[in-house]
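lol forgot to send this yesterday, sorry. struct tokens for the thing we talked abt
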């Protein structure tokens, strides 16, 4: 394998050694390195999300951290830890989050944000965390809403599903699964239609990314109709027997299906730009407001009058628009549905009533989408809107607006107790000086800044880092750049989990491989170029000892569990024996009492039969006493066995 190295040719590494070198050597070193960087950071944001682990068959909660690297002067996003739960309710998730921070002793005080997606259970976790911070005397966390990427997907889904008759999710799934894992049907499809193009898989959690799925569905829809007609000619026994086929039979005569799919594709294409831009680990909070505003203006342009849009110059006025007022909305016949859909509708030669009905549905769908964006949009949060004052492009082109927004941002951070009031005032003055002198002096550089490629922390750091006169301003830059703009890093981690997972894999191995993989990515070098220093070698030398200690601890835990089960079993036996002992004691007492009564009556009446019965009762009581003695001995043995298991 290594013909150019005599040393490498003699190198041997068993599977077990490889595993414990990763788990107890590399992962330990890289985790310590990460924790030391996080602790040095003046602020950090904790990100979390959970999903099913199919190997361990429980819920895996992955946690990431965005922090400020004080040595390089940039913000970083790294995988931190994973926790495993059987019941992922809000209380359990909160407890596991605290464990993620408490085990490496990361202080809650320097945490400024909790990044998450939008389910109710996550908002409960945030509530618990805020209460915990209040108890400890820490300030509230900054809030710019839940993950913007999830909001875009969710709003688009809401819009598409608002029209119950469309059933696009049902149709897109049906045309894929009808031929999925069915070679015979695929062969029949190719022979009947002369096409080897099939549907793409629809993802029900990432609607916007299904633009290509809808495009493919439009292309093959005539083939679907042809196949359904062919099957319907055949006897029932020869037709597919599944829900996908039933769905297509229900909709294949609906001439509006391609039109609905084209409208789906048209809106998805508009919204996909935001996803493409923000699926990155670069600090992007200063650009959220502008990009979301662009997205909303494109979609509002479908249903709103131009005059209304011109009267909403700011992101805040945009999210406050009344979408239920007909005076703000375009007439049904004038909504902007895209050239492709217009041409498709012309080719159908629709009646005016049919056309207006479909356009009304499109209008209602766009309104439902916009309402969801208004409800969940980060634009509702002042920190998000005012963070755009740190956009280099806007600094160069919109100086007055930026000064006003930065002043509001500084006051918001002061209110959140991340800045002292005097530092906030100082930062305002520093920003005013920076934008009027440094920015003006380097105006061409600020205008050329491209946030899709360049890093805003690096760019502003060139002018602000280690410059005493801009210290308060730079602190605000660090805070905003340490905030999270979405869950892209966690979502990518789920894909990594899928690649890493093996049958019978343990939790420790999964976490260790994730840590090592994440470090390699963060190093931005090839694997063979990673620096091997003395500390790394030292940790790897200790790996075998840690591994043996781990095995010993696992054996001890296993033995403790077995002993616990045995003690439980003995306790159950003791309860049964004590119950039986009580029954025997009661029987002896009753027998002796009855024997005395019969003896007294026999003597009084001189009746030998009663005397015989009395003696029989005394004999039975004596036998029961022997049984009681054996039960007492058994109890003593069980108590001793239980004591030995401790």
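and heres what i got for the seq, position by position
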């Amino acid at each position: 394998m290594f013909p150019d190295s005599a040393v490498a040719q003699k190198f041997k590494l068993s599977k077990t050694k490889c595993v414990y070198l990763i788990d107890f050597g590399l992962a330990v070193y890289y985790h310590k390195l990460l924790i030391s960087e996080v602790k040095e950071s003046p602020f950090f944001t904790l990100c979390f999300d959970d999903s099913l682990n199919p190997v361990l068959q429980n819920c895996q909660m992955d946690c990431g951290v965005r922090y400020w690297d004080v040595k390089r002067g940039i913000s970083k996003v790294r995988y931190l830890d994973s926790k495993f739960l059987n019941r992922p309710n809000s209380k359990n998730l909160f407890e596991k989050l605290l464990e993620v921070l408490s085990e490496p002793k990361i202080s809650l005080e320097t945490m400024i944000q909790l990044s998450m997606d939008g389910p109710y259970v996550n908002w409960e976790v945030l509530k618990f965390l805020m209460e915990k911070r209040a108890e400890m005397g820490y300030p509230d966390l900054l809030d710019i809403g839940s993950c913007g990427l999830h909001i875009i997907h969710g709003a688009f889904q809401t819009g598409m599903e608002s029209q119950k008759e469309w059933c696009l999710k049902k149709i897109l799934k049906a045309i894929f699964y009808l031929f999925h894992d069915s070679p015979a049907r695929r062969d029949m499809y190719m022979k009947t239609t002369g096409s080897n193009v099939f549907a793409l898989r629809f993802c029900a959690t990432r609607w916007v990314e299904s633009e290509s799925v809808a495009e493919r569905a439009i292309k093959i829809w005539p083939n679907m109709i042809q196949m359904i007609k062919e099957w319907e000619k055949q006897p029932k026994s020869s037709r597919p027997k599944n829900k996908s086929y039933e769905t297509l039979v229900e909709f294949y005569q609906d001439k509006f299906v391609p039109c609905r799919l084209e409208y789906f594709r048209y809106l998805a294409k508009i919204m996909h730009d935001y996803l493409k831009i923000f699926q990155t680990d670069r600090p992007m909070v200063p650009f959220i407001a502008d990009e979301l505003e662009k997205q909303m203006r494109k979609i509002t342009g479908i249903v709103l009058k131009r005059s209304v849009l011109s009267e909403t110059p700011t992101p805040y006025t945009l999210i406050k628009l009344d979408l239920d007022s007909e005076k703000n909305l375009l007439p049904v016949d004038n909504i902007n549905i895209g050239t492709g859909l217009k041409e498709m509708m012309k080719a159908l030669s629709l009646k005016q009533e049919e056309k207006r009905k479909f356009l009304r549905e499109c209008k209602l769908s766009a309104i439902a989408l916009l309402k969801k964006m208004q409800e969940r949009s980060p634009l509702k949060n002042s920190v998000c809107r005012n963070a755009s004052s740190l956009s280099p492009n806007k600094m160069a082109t919109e100086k007055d607006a930026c000064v006003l927004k930065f002043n509001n941002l500084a006051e918001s951070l002061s209110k959140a107790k991340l800045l002292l009031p005097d530092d906030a005032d100082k930062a305002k003055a520093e920003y005013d000086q920076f934008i009027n002198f440094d920015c003006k002096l380097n105006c061409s550089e600020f205008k050329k800044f491209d946030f899709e490629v360049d890093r805003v922390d690096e760019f502003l750091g060139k002018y602000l880092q280690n410059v005493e006169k801009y210290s308060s301003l730079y602190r605000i830059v660090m805070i905003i750049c340490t905030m999270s703009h979405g869950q892209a890093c966690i979502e990518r981690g789920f894909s990594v989990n899928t690649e890493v997972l093996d049958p019978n894999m343990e939790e420790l191995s999964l976490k260790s491989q994730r840590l090592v993989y994440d470090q390699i990515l963060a190093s931005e070098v090839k694997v063979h170029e990673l620096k091997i220093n003395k500390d790394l070698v030292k940790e790897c030398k200790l790996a075998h000892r840690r591994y043996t200690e781990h095995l010993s601890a696992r054996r001890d835990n296993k033995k403790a569990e077995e002993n616990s089960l045995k003690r439980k079993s003995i306790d159950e036996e003791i309860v049964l024996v004590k119950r039986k002992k009580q029954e025997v004691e009661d029987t002896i007492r009753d027998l002796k009492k009855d024997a005395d009564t019969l003896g007294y009556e026999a003597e009084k009446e001189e009746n030998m039969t009663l005397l015989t019965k009395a003696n029989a009762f005394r004999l039975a009581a004596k036998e029961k006493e022997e049984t009681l003695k054996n039960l007492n001995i058994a109890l003593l043995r069980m108590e001793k066995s239980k004591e030995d298991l401790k």
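The chain is about 65% helix and 5% strand. anyway ping me if u want another try
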